[in-house]
Automatic annotation (TrEMBL):
Catalytic residues of the enzyme: 135
UniProt-recorded name of the protein: Peptide deformylase
Catalytic activity: N-terminal N-formyl-L-methionyl-[peptide] + H2O = N-terminal L-methionyl-[peptide] + formate
Cell division keyword on record: no
Record-linked NCBIfam families: pept_deformyl, PRK00150.1-3
Length: 170
């Protein structure tokens, strides 16, 4: 398995809208496995394909403590079952050091396809619900910084661009 490069804000590729997946082949499975490996290496709980410069509607999530319950989600869509807005404090592998409070729907019903193309659905609440909403945002080119004030967004942009410049010099 390969560790994929995670794009970081303000990379414009994070703003691309991902396309629906129609081929459920071994290439898709390979992409999904590499994404999962990358997410585990970087200690994330969710990763959207957009973050690794693959602009297809694919998400991996694993909320388990021992990293043994991966879920591969293709072509997700969800409907809100309980729209009580809950404030969720979130981070993102594409925005290192940044945290943002985001209003998320408490409970959703997720519909998606598995890696074989079979239709699946489940009801998610709490962290699983917020995580799915966060990752679907990525597929639509939306980022945590979009929920922040323009001042806070400008600050993190400056900070991450400095970090990137530093890396490029090494
Ligand atoms: Ni994220």
């Amino acid at each position: 398995m390969n560790r994929l490069n995670i794009l970081t804000f303000p990379d414009p590729r994070l703003r691309k809208k991902a396309l629906a997946i129609t081929n459920f082949d071994s290439a898709l499975e390979k992409k999904a496995k590499n994404m999962l490996f990358t997410m585990y290496e970087d200690k994330g709980i969710g990763l959207a394909a957009t973050q690794v410069d693959i602009h297809e509607r694919l998400i991996v999530i694993d909320l388990s403590e021992d990293r043994s319950e991966p879920i591969f989600i293709v072509n997700p869509s969800y409907k809100v079952l309980d729209d009580t807005p809950v404030i969720s404090k979130e981070g993102c592998l594409s925005i290192p050091t940044f945290q943002q409070e985001v209003p998320r729907a408490k409970e959703i019903e997720l519909s998606y396809q598995n890696l074989k193309g079979q239709a699946e659905k489940f009801v998610a609440d709490g962290l699983m619900s917020y995580c799915i909403q966060h990752e679907v945002d990525h597929l639509d080119g939306k980022l945590l910084v979009d929920y922040a004030s323009s001042l806070k967004r400008a600050r993190i942009k400056e900070k991450l661009m400095k970090l990137k410049d530093g890396k490029n010099k090494n």
